[in-house]
Amino acid sequence: MRVLITGGAGFLGSHLCDRFLAEGHSVIAMDNLLTGNTANIEHLAGHERFHFIKHDVTNYIYVEGPLDAVLHFASPASPIDYLEFPIPTLKVGALGTHKALGLAKAKNARFLLASTSEVYGDPLIHPQTEDYWGNVNPIGPRGVYDEAKRFAEAMTMAYQRYHGLDTRIVRIFNTYGPRMRQEDGRVVPNFIAQALRGDPLTVYGKGQRTRAFCFVSDLVEGIYRLLMSNEKEPVNIGNPSEMSILNFAKKVIELTNSTSEITFIEPTDMRIKDDPKVRRPDITKARTILGWEPTVLLEDGLAQTIEYFRPLVLK
Ligand code: UDP
């Protein structure tokens, strides 16, 4: 296959580039480098089946030659980024998805949308199944991401139904691993960097909010299987093993052998407004249709992530 990956220099996009190349496909990575970084793909420079194009996909996308698949992963993806880049976040989810769909239609390519557990907002049902419609505040700080991704899903389904485009939608739950940005503000890089420096771990509120963390290699496997499957409706991919943020902080301290303490803070800015109280994927659909489930234990995934951050943080 010849595959276009938007957001190809980002955390998930770059791991997808690696996977598709390893399977023998040709990969074009496209990224405007707003939150992506060429360091994530520099090991691919010179690879005969890899090509990078710096481009903002909210503008018309030109790709020469045939394409078999378009994977649309371009977007800021951290709550801190939504605060800093609210309009680019809305634009890439809305205009960027439209351009990527238009390209897939012109090339008669399969299209896969990177959607998110954020479409469920601050969920009123738990765990979240794909048929839940969600509880999203359209005008809150997260609305720029949540609503853009909800629009992106609607647009993708419209291209499927109206144009007959062959589409897939993955709803991605909290994912972590090497190549996350140290400064992206999410809990995994924050806690690991704090623990490695010996600084206090900043738990927001009382740390009773929950998340379930999926290692990036598990996520990539789920996405690969979804693309190859015939499932045209959204599928949750994530790790269902849920824990409180306080317990997560303790786990990071343990695995880094850190002397850090835990500090409880109430951010005065918008960082935790509308922060979902609980989140856990119901992965029955992925298990049944894709035969997929996560295999990497939190301890093992975190150990790899800590080793990735260690030289960067102590520099
Ligand atoms: N969080 C925290 N301390 C931090 C960063 C995040 O306690 O330094 C909390 C945040 O309030 C949320 C959870 O960790 O409840 C996960 O936040 P993250 O930004 O990683 O992603 P989200 O799942 O909210 O999109």
Layout of helices and strands, plus pairs?
Layout: E1 2-6, H1 11-22, E2 26-31, E3 50-54, E4 69-72, H2 79-84, H3 86-107, E5 110-116, H4 143-163, E6 167-172, E7 175-176, H5 187-197, E8 201-204, E9 210-212, E10 214-215, H6 216-228, E11 235-237, E12 242-244, H7 245-256, E13 262-265, H8 284-290, H9 298-314
Helix pairs in contact: 1-6, 3-4, 5-7, 5-9, 7-9
The structure holds uridine-5'-diphosphate.
The site of uridine-5'-diphosphate has 13 residues, from helix 5 and strand 8.
Give a structural overview:
This protein folds into 2 domains: 198 residues, 3-Layer(aba) Sandwich (Rossmann fold), CATH 3.40.50; 95 residues, UDP-galactose 4-epimerase, domain 1 (Alpha-Beta Complex). It is 38% helix and 17% strand. The chain has 9 helices and 13 strands. By secondary structure, it is of the alpha/beta class. The longest helix has 22 residues. The strands form 4 sheets. It has a 7-stranded parallel β-sheet with strand order 3-2-1-4-5-6-11, with helices on both faces. The structure holds uridine-5'-diphosphate. The site of uridine-5'-diphosphate has 13 residues, from helix 5 and strand 8.
Distance between the termini: 40 Å
Task: Estimate the helix proportion, in percent.
Answer: 25-40%
- CATH class of the largest domain equals Alpha Beta
Structural class: alpha/beta
Low-confidence stretches: none
Taking all Cα atoms into account, the compactness measure Rg is 19 Å
Strand content: 15-25%
- CATH-defined architecture of the largest domain: 3-Layer(aba) Sandwich
